[in-house]
Design goal:
Length: 443
């Protein structure tokens, strides 16, 4: 790609060099259609010819060179150290706490309820079942426990209680004392006086008149008639039959034995459980007995009685009541209320509130703080210094060599021949010799 990209640039340089040579040597010519050349300065030039020149071409070539480098790698090195640490030991202490409890109060009540009374019936059947029989295996393991060390201490606590102190005070207050006063006044009032008036009115009433009549009544009497008929009675007996119940099929999952696998990342062994598989278990079939009712048909003759209704006619008497209208006259009194004015004198009492001062004594309770001291037991967690051995890991650097391939640029020089067109006779002589310094035909 670099060489192809350099070809147009090389052609442009060659054409520029030829034009400069023709200009310096006055060899620029114009060719006609028939090959005749006319000099630019009015003279006649020689026939055109070519000569070869060499140019230097520089190109860059990438060479692959292997180089050894070093990088730092950190290795984990285990180191055991003894570390001092503080552990907390629980200590028992005591203190007084006020709390509220709910005291149960019992109250007797009566209620009626319905229960289902069981009636037990004894039956027998065979049941096949599977039990898991324990097989004991003795194993030994080592474990670490933290043994608490309890320490009992006592301390004095100052607390404050409120002691009631009573103080007698006197205060004066005002009350309103009622004073009653008797007064008199006249009251005019109106009363309604009754005045009676006699009136007469006529009214019609319905008078009952009873009449005796007869009629024929037909009734039906039921008469018993005996007869015989043949019926079929369903009978039977109980028979014992045996049947077989197939065993139940169950599946259970069984895990195979696992194994311990070493984990290089944590430097420890991890337990890897085994695979799970299903096992089919089928129990033995069960034979049971049951009682079955076997029906049978029997023919019997029975005596029956049927009732037949016979009509009976009889004559009965009954009374009919007829309402006959009748006019009557009555006298009644009517009361009218006539207003009448009266005057009366009445006495009434008026209550006036007269203020009166009184003095009373009362007690005031003040809560005075009083300091007291009590001793209580409590538990505290006491730090105890101990030592244990821990494993620490530190990183130790080391140099690891590795090889890297890189590309190094290198400049390569190359001579490329070029042909130049020239009509100067001096240039023809110089085709085999180096071009003159004043001529531009060397490109």
């Amino acid at each position: 790609m670099k060489r192809l990209f350099g070809l147009p640039l090389l052609a442009a340089l060659v054409s520029l060099a030829g034009s400069q040579a023709n200009a310096s040597c006055n060899c620029a010519a114009r060719y006609g259609c028939e090959g005749e050349a006319t000099a630019a300065d009015g003279g006649v030039c020689e026939a055109p010819h070519y000569h070869t020149i060499y140019r230097t071409k520089r190109s860059t070539v990438m060479d692959r060179v292997e180089e050894t480098r070093f990088r730092t790698v950190y290795d984990r090195v285990a180191e055991e150290k003894v570390v001092n640490y503080t552990k907390h030991v629980t200590e028992t202490r005591q203190k007084q706490v006020n709390y509220t409890v709910m005291v149960p109060t019992y109250e007797t009540k009566t209620r009626t309820y319905t229960v289902n009374k069981p009636v037990w019936e004894t039956r027998t059947r065979d049941i096949n079942y599977t039990v898991m029989k324990p097989v004991y295996e003795t194993k030994t393991r080592t474990y670490t426990v933290n043994k608490p060390v309890w320490e009992t201490r006592q301390k004095q606590i100052n607390y404050t209680v409120m002691v009631p102190t009573y103080e007698t005070k006197t205060r004066t207050y005002t009350v309103n004392k009622p004073v009653w006063e008797t007064r008199t006044r006249d009251i005019n009032y109106t009363v309604m006086k009754p005045v009676w008036e006699t009136k007469t009115r006529t009214y019609t009433v319905n008078k009952p008149v009873w009449e005796t009549r007869t009629r024929e009544v037909t009734s039906y009497v039921r008469k018993a008639v005996p007869y015989t008929k043949t019926i079929t009675v369903n009978g039977g007996s109980w028979q014992t039959q045996s049947y077989t119940i197939p065993g139940k099929t169950s599946y259970r999952t069984v895990r195979s034995a696992g194994k311990w696998v070493y984990n290089p990342c944590t430097c420890s062994c991890c337990y890897q459980p085994g695979t799970c598989c299903k096992i089919e278990c089928t129990s033995a079939p069960t034979t049971c007995c049951k009682k079955v009712w076997v029906p049978s048909c029997e023919t019997k003759e029975i005596c029956c009685t049927k009732y037949v209704c016979e009509p009976v006619t009889k004559t009965c008497c009954y009374k009919v009541c007829t309402m006959v209208p009748e006019c009557k006259t009555c006298t009644y009194k009517v009361c009218k209320m006539v207003p009448e004015c009266h005057t009366k004198t009445c006495c009434y009492k008026v209550c006036k509130m007269v203020p009166e001062c009184k003095t009373c004594c009362y007690k005031v309770c003040k809560m005075v703080p009083e300091c007291r001291t009590k001793t209580c037991c409590y538990k505290v967690c006491v730090p105890v210094c101990a030592q244990r051995t821990v494993t620490c890991y530190k990183c130790v650097p080391r140099q690891v060599p590795y090889t890297v391939t890189k590309c190094v640029p290198r400049v390569v020089c190359e001579q490329i021949p070029c042909k130049v067109l020239c009509t100067n006779p001096a240039c023809a002589e110089a085709s085999t010799a180096p071009a003159a310094a004043g001529c531009g035909c060397n490109g």
